[in-house]
Amino acid sequence: MRMTLQFLGATEEVTGSCHLLSVDHEHLLLDCGLIQGGKADELRNHDPFAFDPESISAVVLSHAHIDHSGRLPLLVKAGFDGPIYTHKATAELCAIMLKDAAMLQTRDTERVNKKRAKHDLEPLEPLFTVEDAEQAITQFVPLEYGQVTRVIPHVDICLSDAGHILGSALVELWLGEDKFQKKIVFSGDLGRAGMPILRNPTLVDTADLVLMESTYGNRFHRSWTDTLAELKDIFAKTVNESQGNILLPAFSVGRAQELLYLFHLYAKEWDLSRWRICLDSPMAIEATRVYVNNYPLMDEDFKRFTRQHPGQHPLLSNVEFIQTTEESMALNEVHKGLIIIAGSGMCNGGRIRSHLEHNLWRPECDVIICGYQALGTPGRALVDGVGELTIHGNSIKVAAKLHTVGGLSAHADQAELLRWYRHFEGQPPLILVHGEPDAQHGLVDVVNQEPNTKPQATAIATHGDRLDLTALPQLVWKPA
Question: Is the full-model pTM beyond 0.90?
């Protein structure tokens, strides 16, 4: 029986997750995500797939974030008509996010085509349309955590809670039969123990190969206690000293809901009654409603709170939902007292761009960066200390106070990644994906330091690498 795994995305970078698993003549994709970052990075989304989409029998999707799910409509457009297996909450979120991504593709293409028309150039087509996204959504097969499912011949999977966002899953895969069987565990994006709303990442005992993300492989997040103190201090200083607005670029799924929960829990301690808290993102608003409707997936603290306060939902209690463009524009006329949560989380699109244009140049305002910022994005430029940012064609001076609150990250840091990996019996071979090279090499150095927990083999996946799974526990690479 031939079994190979090829790495075709999120290799030595964080976005574009995509891995091709082949068992005899059947082919399975793990994730199919958009590449995000600068324009040169995003142009790679238009490149043809490195495989025939019609040859793919099924897709297993770890979670809803666009860098894991965003090329599914393109895959369908190119001929894939098979099932997409994922957790039921992920299917609900993708029904929102993929259509939103398609509308953005269409809008951006229309903008480019107006410029091309002035130069008598042929119009371009969007990467995919709303119709493509809607077709992809019909192919989702919702699963529960702990449900063992045969997805292609000789491959069974089981999803477990990864604790990253609602519905996020790490994937256990059993390949082959009897004595030839191999077990692979794909981490997806791992969350963190003890974070609000979601349950802790599931620990897995056994594997013949671990495929693990490494976003923060060389970093340590601040403790939760220190993070809360940091946020309290930011709000206190802004009220007492500068009296401006606070902007929070936030991912519409996961980060936005986490912030709403914190603003509910600490409303009195942080004196938030002085503020008008606005969630200015139609997609985040829809995603919040999905969170509200999936109450059983929350952690015990969240469920206990809702039981003790009937009729007062922690995600809905002290926030205004800003739906229309007109409502969003009106916020730009308010010069103090606003906390605005808006997408996109990396500042490369969405309504946060307009709010940055109107507030970034004002020294009395604050910007809180509370999530991963990919290379080439405006958010990464802010974190790296850029003095000016171009927004809607205008050069905006960066005068607002910038705060990078790493403790809010939904990704496991180095210590948490090591803790998750070291729970496996026998230190199975480890391959790192979904991380920049510095983070990955830093993690490899640490994981190989302790003889008692050193993996049988360690590698960093590079684009196009193809692994012979029948040779495990040895990592034997085959020609691409």
Answer: yes
